[in-house]
Amino acid sequence: MSRLLTDEEIGRQLGELPGWTRQGGEISASYQAPDFPTAVRLVDEVALEAEDMDHHPDIDIRWRTVKFVLSTHSEGGLTQLDVELAHRVTQAAARLKATADG
Ligand SMILES: C[C@H](O)[C@H](O)[C@H]1CNC2=NC(N)=NC(=O)C2=N1
Question: An example of a Gene Ontology BP annotation on this entry (predicted)?
Answer without folding.
Answer: tetrahydrobiopterin biosynthetic process
